[in-house]
Structures are given as C-alpha cells and as structure tokens.
Amino acid sequence: MTGYLADTAALARKDLLLELRGREILPAMAIFVVAMLVAFRFALTGEQTDAAAGLLWVAIVFTALLGLGRAFVAEREQQVLDGLVLAPCDRSAIWLAKVLATLAFLILVELIALPAFGLFFERPDGATVAAVLLADVGICAVGTLIAAMAVAGRARELLLPLLFLPLAIPIIVGGVGATVAEDPARYLGFLGLYDLVFAILAWATFEYVVTE
Amino acid sequence: MLLGGGVALALLWAPEDADQGVSQRIFYIHVPIALTAYACFAWGAWKALRLLWTRAERHDLESYTAIHLGTIFGLLTLVTGSIWAKISWGVWWSWGERQLVLFLILFLFYSAYFMLRFSIDPGPARANLSAVYALFGVVMIPVSFLAIRLAENFIHPVVFTRDGPQMAGSMFATFLVCLAGTLALAAALYANELTGKRLDARLRELRELLT
C-alpha cells in the first residue's frame, strides 16, 4: 500500500511540477472563470440575481472542463501514457494522481472564483463552499476518467464536453440545491454519495481505459 | 424461428391496445417502451461488464447493439411521453415529470456514447472505452433519478399528482401483455441487428483477406 501511495504521490508531483514550470493550465482557467462571471453579470438583468447561484455552478463545471481538456494532452503528445502504463505500478495510481493534480488546480482556481463571485454577486455561504469542495471531488474523479477516454478519440476537444456534461448534471443539481435550499444537508449528502459511487467506479475501470 | 415468432407476437400483440382508445391508452405503449429501454441499457452494461471480465470480443458488439436499441426505445419514450403530456396537461414538455427528464438526460448521455464509438478506430481500445462508458450509464440511471427528485424541490415546487393508477385486473393484464410484446420486439430486433452486424464484420474480414 505504501508503494501505491508513493507511486500516486510521485505521479501527482510530476503534474504539479509541470504546471509550476509551464504555467499552462492554471492561468487559463483563472482568467476563464473570471471572464465568465463578468459575462454572466451582463447576462442577467437587475431582478434575476437569484439565478446567479446557478451560474456559479455552470462557471465551475465549464472551468473544470477547460482544465480537464488539457489533463492528458501532455501524456498523449509525448507518449508518456504508454510509458506509464508499462511502468510497474497499479494503473489506478495514474488515475488517482491525475485526480489529485486536477483537484489542486480546480481548488486554486476557485480560490479566485469564489471571492470574485462574492464581489460581483453575493457572498457564498458555508454550505456553498462545502458543496463546491464536494463537487470538485466528483468532477475530478469522473472528469479525469472521461478525459482519458476523450484523448483516445479523433475529435478529442469535441468529445470531452459531450461525454462529461450529462454526467455533470447530478453535480449541478446537488450544488445548486445546496446553494439555494434552506437545509443543504440533503444536497451535500447527495454530492457525497455521487463522489463515492463514481470515484469507486472510475477507480475500478480506469485500467481498461488506458490499456488495450 | 425464434426471431420470426418474436416479431409475429409483437405485431399481433401491439395492435390489441392500439385500437382500445386514445389518450390514456398511450400508457400501454409508453411505459413498456420505457421499461424496455431500461432493460436494453442494463443488458448493454451487463455485456460491457462481461467484456471487461472475459475480454471476449463478441461482447462488444452485443453491448453496442443493446445500447443502440435502448437509445431508440429511449427516444420513443420521449416522444410518446411528450404526446401524453400534451394530451393530459396541455404542454409538450414538463420538468415535473421525473421519468421524462431522466430519459432526456439518458438520451444525451447515450448519444455521447455513439460519438465516442464513432471517433475511435475499431479495436480493443474502442471496445474497452465503450464498455466503461456503458457501465457509467447504468450507474447514472439511479443517480440521475435521485438528482431529479432532489431538483424538483427547487425547480418545480408544484409536483403533479396524478391519481395513483389503481389498475384493474384487465388493465394490468393488457399492460403485462404489452410489456411482453415490447420486450419480445426488442429481443427480436436485438437478435436481428446482431446477426446483421456480425455479417458485416465477417464480410469486412473476408474482404480484407482478399485484398
């Protein structure tokens, strides 16, 4: 087990280091999410600020999509994935590491996005923040697997949102529910359940996505 | 033989309810189709699981055919449900109808399945990816259903309450017959499609051998 964790840590560290040196994904995601929130501000007229909560969730999902779209590009372009698959480690460690790295990016971007949302619309409450964190786990767990699928296809940029958005609908339901409902516990519980179910499924099936 | 029998049964049974009436009678078509779609998706996912398990190539085609049929039945469910909604509530679409919303999400989900399949070259990689996605689909069904139930609380405060269908014996019998009919139809179509697709694959192999 320590070997598994060490593999995961090493792989996640590789992704974080790459980003630290290349600075490809993070700035793009951050600018995108702020631009999106500004665009939403103008998409709403005065009385519609209630809709803002929903738009926050749309912004998060789309920003995550932007990051996920790049998640496996380096691996494919440089044929790293073949090497990783051949490496003597559990294949699901590749998935777990990628989830952790993507999760780190997403949380960093949300450190910008949530205050920006508070500035433009209304301050997110504790339940919203908790829901965002829970949703991040689900988005990254499912999204990483789907991203690995999408890069195998010809129309990879096209494929990812197409495959991912139907799967993200429950996350949006849970997230918006937690943001607007009087008692958010049920929605948070639902998000937790989603995370658990799909994380197990993705963890178990990732091996088949990267091997033939 | 079985195929001919299945088609004959489905054809003989289906008109039985078609001439019984108009508005509410669509129930006998709509619900069996929906259940059949579920059955197809479940069968597709089962075959997908078998594929990942045994790595036998034939499961890929079987899983694909089942999901293909499931999507067609899902689309039919949307159409018949929409007609039903128009007749009983006067609108073509209602976010209050859980099953229909679920089918819309599933339809989107499985449409993406086809995009996935068509964008990858045939081979074991495609089989694996499709199988994994099919497994996600079958997990999506209960999760989305739960999500829709939760969403109703804030999307749609007034929940439609239809009279609980206390079905009389004869109605239930008709329903069962229709369900068996659509299931038989699906099974027949499945067998038919599968034979066709296998022939196609075989033909392609032979052609490759010749050239």
Descriptive key words:
heterodimer; A: 212 residues; mainly alpha; globular; B: 211 residues; 6 helices; 0% strand
Question: Could you explain how this protein is built, in words?
Answer:
The complex is a heterodimer of chains A (212) and B (211). In chain A, 46% of the residues are buried. Chain A is 84% helix and 0% strand. Chain A is mainly alpha-helical. The radius of gyration of chain A is 17 Å and the shape is globular. Chain B is mostly helical and 211 residues long. Chain B is globular. The A-B interface holds A 142, 145, 149, 152-156, 158-159, 162-163, 165-167, 169-170, 173-174, 176-177, 180-181, 186-187, 190, 193-194, 197-198, 201, 205, 208-209, 211-212 and B 52, 105-106, 108-109, 111-112, 115-116, 119-120, 123-125, 128-129, 131-133, 135-136, 139-140, 143-144, 146-148, 150-151, 153-154.
